[in-house]
User: What shape does this take?
Amino acid sequence: MKSRFLIFAMALVASASFAGTNRLGIVVFQFDDGSAGHYKAYQILEKYGLKGSFGVITGRLDKPGALTSAQVVEMYKAGHEIHDHTLEHDAAFYGNPANKDEWPQRMERSLAILKNLGIATRGWNHPGGKGQGWTPELRATLARYYDYVAGRVSLRSEQVWNIHWNFRDDPLCLGRGGVSSWGYNAATNDAAREVQAIKTKIADGIQQGLVTIALWHVVKDEDGTAGSVEEIGRFVRDHHLPTMRMADAVKAIQHTRDHFDRQIEQMPNPMLAVDLDGDGRPDGYASCRYAPVEIRSPAGGRAILWSGATSTAIHGPETGRTVFSFMARSADDKSRTIAPELSFVEINKNFEYKWPPKVKCKPVEIGPDWQRVNFSVEVGEEADRVTIKMDVSPGSAIYFCNPSWRAVSTTNNTIRSP
Assistant: This one.
């Protein structure tokens, strides 16, 4: 992972106060490799009352271009997290199972360096680069020393969204949110565009209940990276976005009921009214097209122009009986028959992925006037996420707004009002 700005999304939980009754994600500030500029990043975070997670290569401490031991201790005592980013950042060494007998020795040496500085950590930051890899042997060794792995390499496609609300997967296999990097990489392009891209990803991720990890390797003034930490820190502070250190975020998603009532709204930005990054589109529906601005929802928010290719997702839906509902109308003066199609991903207790048959809801007829439609959905105990598409017949587009996905109360078989 050599790009200077990387930002990954992983679904997590956070305070619901920001957007009323819908759940939100978390922002994590992560800095890898322990370069000297990370001390400047630490000072910027402190300025905005934020805490970060710093992956330190322990064997490089006090060397030119790296953090000093005294700086790392200061950061740790100020409440920032220190990851073990290995003794030497040798990706090929950890990617080769033939070295498995030597892994514990290096892990213990690295942890001992941190312990001698008074630093305790339960996070391992996976080194990327030539020869990188992830194997069952490495996972088994890491489990003896760490609670979770940050920046895991060699993720399969189904694993990239595997850390989110109602976290069901292996914490030693933390995902990255579907892409290897976001933005334009200020080292070769425009830092301002990079910052705006990061803001947009944070805005969408927060509304989707994803944890959005803004990740820097190098932080310095010359290429705009230091300025980007400043701008993103101010953006998060000014919007009062939920933030956590990585270790705290992992614990939060493993104990979701400490953060959310079961019946809190699960749909991203249900009123389609929040636009944190100011790009003119509601946050949380990055892949959706919108109706013309004059087509307003009954509640006054935007409306999605939903065609056959449109989809959105719920990460970590509550299990049991739920009700999925939304306001809809045809995009012209003709009636349409619509039927949501739900694709679930399941993860069992052995962290094995399954893709059960798609669930197609009962068709409902809609016309040119807004109407509320409701669908009862049973969410299985192993459900990890669900993608929502819409079958529209005859083929055309509809307007969609004010969505809701809520658990049915087990006491009175009703759903709590928004």
User: Anything to note?
Assistant: The chain is about 20% helix and 25% strand.
